Every structure is written in structure tokens, then in C-alpha cells.
Amino acid sequence: MTLKDIKIGADCRVVAVGGEKILRRRFLEMGITPRTVITVKKAAPMGDPIELLLRGYVLTLRLEDAEKITVEEVAENNCCCVKCPREEVAV
Asked: Residue 91: in which H helix or E strand, if any?
């Protein structure tokens, strides 16, 4: 399954980062590395690009590039973060 196939609002974990040498390096520099949890926040009206939430920042990615990133779906309560940004802290 690739990042392109993930539904809006779903979480996934990066399994592998593909692409040509330069593109792959750019993905890694942007923080898209194996085991990173990514949430697909929304898509443009025509479906391309998609907005992602990862490592505390928002990233917009074209679907053409998103299909080069292999992911697996993650249950909401199965996050790999030490302090998960998805958890609400009671004050």
C-alpha cells in the first residue's frame, strides 16, 4: 500500500521510501523516514496534492510522489511516538 492509497483522516506508518536517488533524498530530508507516523489531513478539491501531518508539521505532497512511499495503516491507539501529539492532555 502506498501513501497515495490512504484515506483522509487515517494514520499510517512509513515502511519504505522509494523514488529516484534525488527524490528519495528529498523525502528523507523532509522527515519522511521509515517508522514515521503520518496523518493524511486533507486533499485539494481535485484530489491532488494531499496535506500530511508528520513530526509536528504540515507537508503538502503530490500524489505522483506519494505513490513512491510504501506505508502500512496504523490503529489510532497504536502510535509509535513517545509523547503522541494525537493524545489530548487533561489540564
From this structure: none
Predicted confidence at residue 46, as pLDDT, reads: 87
Phi-psi region for residue 73, left (φ > 0), alpha (ψ -120 to 50) or beta? beta
Residue from 80, 62, 64 nearest 13 by CA: 80
Task: Tell me the C-alpha distance between 5 and 10, whole Å.
Answer: 10
Residues with Cβ within 8 Å of 61's Cβ and at least 6 positions away in sequence, in order, are 3, 49, 50, 52
Per-residue pLDDT at 77? 57
Q: Consecutive 10-residue runs of the chain (91 residues): their mean pLDDT?
A: 91 92 92 92 90 93 93 73 48 38
| Topology annotation, domain 3-73 | SH3 type barrels. (2.30.30)
